[in-house]
Known about the structure:
Blueprint: E1 3-8, H1 12-24, E2 29-35, E3 46-49, E4 52-55, E5 61-62, H2 72-79, E6 86-87, E7 94-98, E8 101-104, E9 109-110, E10 113-114, H3 147-155, H4 157-172, H5 181-184, H6 186-192, H7 198-208, E11 218-221, H8 225-236, E12 239-242, E13 246-251, E14 257-261, E15 268-272, E16 274-277, H9 281-288, E17 299-310, E18 321-323, E19 332-337, H10 338-341, E20 352-358, H11 371-386, E21 395-407, H12 412-421, E22 427-429, H13 432-435, H14 439-458
Parallel strand pairs: 1-2, 1-16, 2-12, 7-18, 16-22
Antiparallel strand pairs: 3-4, 5-11, 6-11, 7-8, 9-10, 13-14, 14-15, 17-20, 17-21, 18-19, 19-20
Helix pairs in contact: 1-8, 1-14, 2-14, 3-4, 6-7
Amino acid sequence: MRKRIAVIGGGIAGLAAAVRLRDLHPSGVDIIVYERSTTLGGKLQTGELGGRRVERGAESFLNSGSDGAESAAVALARRLGLGDSLVHPAARPAALAIGGRLARIPTGTLVGVPGDLSVLDGVARPAGGADVDRGVPLLAPGADVAVGALVRERYGDEVVDRLVDPMLGGVYAGRADRLSLRVTMPQLAATAETEHTLVDAVRAAQARGRRIPGRPVFAAVDGGMSRLISAAASASGARLELGLPVRELSRTAAGRWKLIFGSAPAPRVDEVDAVILAVPAKPAARLLGDAGAEIAALEYASVALAALALPAETALPELSGFLVPPGEGTLVKAATFFTTKWPHLADRPGPVVVRVSLGRAGEEERLQLDDASLLAVARRELSELIGATLPEPAESWVQRWGGGLPQYAPGHADRAARVRAGLPEGLAVAGAAFDGVGIPACVASGERAADDVSKFLEGNR
């Protein structure tokens, strides 16, 4: 009898799981992907603007993993035949908007945490004499703290407020004082268990993850992330059930899994041998019942992206973009000069495109504007931040990601581990709700879940 595996969630974690399942089971297994939306990809969506392909979600992924090797996202792209389509940003600096000026982001930091305090000149003043050797490691084995708590104690407030907060805010839309060190900077958490000063811990973490010389930090797919999504769906050979949310998940008397999905008035039923759950925290907790209680409290931040197509002659600073510390008070938290950041676009005719990210954790009310008003705020604040009035865009769009980014409080990794430990055999979880944001983290999470259910199936032939 053919085995059947359900993947609930059609984002990149779920699709990476489906591809790995197909690689592990080339034949004899049916894979079904259930996605409540009518499209696959989750927060990886590519749109059009002024004749250009512009991301409506994540625009790039890390090229290397924490060990310096090729990241899981790059490996997946190569597996899907997209290796020759990988592109990299131009070697342009990024900046911080501080007090009405754009200051270049110091080089050599770890998500904004420096291993050399001399690089902070003109950006932030570190606290003098605070990062001293007290005879014990910074963290006890397995312990977790908020990033802000550790860095404030050792480097002072300005380093957190002006550098670490905007760097973390660019990725998580959250605040350093509330985000887990072990989830957001696992490499630093590991070295903090052996090193006695933050400077030494950062340097040790950087040495462990030393990049191959000449390898760019980031990569993207020429033509858009939607190509990665469609290639993964195709390679998985999965049956796709789109626009049909899974409402209930239960164990049958025979040890299989029963899924009730579709509309409430006309539900459909499937039975499968194993399940991978790759959805956000609240729907995951609902389907898991008591086993998912610890993940249910995970909070999410809402953000919006505004994209502006400006006349081709529009002059922008010689930067890839900039980040804005929360203390500046703007709704804009980051901007990417899209067409200058990505050199593969240089010879392609079209407008100058700027992507603006708006909103941080706790600022949901500030995003409650209609699209036209939000675009007006984005253009006005962007003009003020770069010190030049931008022309009216020829085209624009707003993409809202309500509840889009998890806010990992300290202890999240332990909570996720306890959820996994309480799962019955044949059920695995994956995705940002458990293993961190970023495309490589989600890909690796999905592949791990696929490995887990495959081992279960191999043992139950």
